[in-house]
Amino acid sequence: MEEQSDATRNGTSGPPGLHELPHESFVPVNGQPSEAEQYDVNQYERPSVTVDVLMMSLRQRDLQTLLIKRRSWPYEDMWAIPGGFINMNESLESAAKRELQEETGVQDVYLEQLYTFGDPGRDPRTRVITVVYFALLDSERLQLRAASDATEVGWFSVYELPQLAFDHQEIVDYALNRLRNKLEYTTIAFNLLPEQFTLRELQRVYEIILHKRLDKRNFRKKIVSTNILEDTGAKKMEGTHRPARLYRFNPAAEHKL
Amino acid sequence: MEEQSDATRNGTSGPPGLHELPHESFVPVNGQPSEAEQYDVNQYERPSVTVDVLMMSLRQRDLQTLLIKRRSWPYEDMWAIPGGFINMNESLESAAKRELQEETGVQDVYLEQLYTFGDPGRDPRTRVITVVYFALLDSERLQLRAASDATEVGWFSVYELPQLAFDHQEIVDYALNRLRNKLEYTTIAFNLLPEQFTLRELQRVYEIILHKRLDKRNFRKKIVSTNILEDTGAKKMEGTHRPARLYRFNPAAEHKL
DNA sequence: GCAATAGTGTCTATCAGACATTATTCT
DNA sequence: AGAATAATGTCTGATAGACACTATTGC
């Protein structure tokens, strides 16, 4: 931290503060033309910016995340969270959606910005700052596209991950934490279920993510009391036992958990 | 979003995914030397990355934030959140600390990453992605450095801000939201108070941030029950009335609110 | 009738919120 | 005595968690 302060005081090694830059310091890209342009912002070294997308879904009664296998240095043959460079004309969220689309073919899923990781040294090739997004996919729609790409991809239990490249384990930990917290006070869980589901299935979502057993009666009481569920009238029969009611999430009833 | 997908399919306009790049694609900066380096990552256009720091403090019984006045296009003469380019060898957090130090001379304050803003048009000069940090300063230490810099800086009530440059109003809104939420379930509020404080002062912090009156008895009951306060034995006498006990925050008692 | 899961209610402890009076200091 | 703020407790309604039995289906 002290080195950086020095670098800043030294006018030649670091750029001045952006918001203090005089008018002439920039070549406007899509703004009005400026009077003088003696100063090119490109003379400064810039980090690379990537957008990674941590996708999570419930598969085989497990919370799983999609990883891709690296085929080159660094971290050759290790698994990593999918991501890519940001294009100059797309928003961060668009880049995340693009990545999501490329890897899974799925659109319109739950997506939120998770955190930005940018330690120098996290990528040995060059300075890479990664804005990480976090997506939740419902298991049903996901079945469609199994293995499609040339690159090796796979779904892994977040509880039994292989060794991950870069600081990606830290990212998964961060995401899992966020997911668990949001589970308690938002309706985020519904993004992991198909449109219709039983209360038992919803409970299972909570149990898998929180990684603990929940009491059936208390759980149902709590969910039902919020009025966020709509009885579809339909029932789901599987196995040799009493069929379960199918519900649908009603986002209109914005009664928080 | 659709344009970006096109751009991606068009091999010449966008870079390949970072994590899929073959080994030879990079000039290692501080890694092992690679066998072949026909590919220079610098050929791709890169966004600028800045780190902005939204500083908040309690001043004059008000929640205020530090802004600097812009002196050039764009948004000339408007107020903005302080920030600057990131140096290639410093972490995001180090950059935020550097900015904090430059603007206020203060160190060791509460600092957390808030969010990353990166819409393509948010700065008309060039593509700028800003990682925003959020700092809380205690009012007492802050008195020391009043007006020091050449650039015009000022503290403004978050509730009566002037028109802000760029998307900075959105950033303030986001920060205020985060602060309010964290107030309820963390001990973040103590960062806005000096080492010793009265319960009334603590209550005032909550009232100012939540922007509503709180019941004195309920507030004290709740705080005291968490055991996060330590009675210093000292009292604070001001005005012609009964003096108030001075407390100190005890971080050891990690009893969440 | 057996296996298997769906569906349901009560009691208790804890917490949040409404609410008014006494205590201490200075002038 | 009066002004000003500190300090304190009770009641009530809501919520969370522990806990066990009946209902429906297929075989």
From TrEMBL, chains A, B:
Name recorded for this polypeptide: NUDIX hydrolase
Region annotation (Disordered) ranges: 1-31
UniProt source species: Dictyobacter vulcani
UniProt-listed Pfam families: NUDIX (PF00293), WHD_NrtR (PF21906)
Domain Nudix hydrolase: 44-179
Gene3D superfamilies per UniProt: Nucleoside Triphosphate Pyrophosphohydrolase, Winged helix-like DNA-binding domain superfamily/Winged helix DNA-binding domain
Keyword Transmembrane helix in annotation: no
Family membership: Belongs to the Nudix hydrolase family.
Keywords per UniProt: Hydrolase
Gene Ontology molecular functions: hydrolase activity
Domain of life: Bacteria
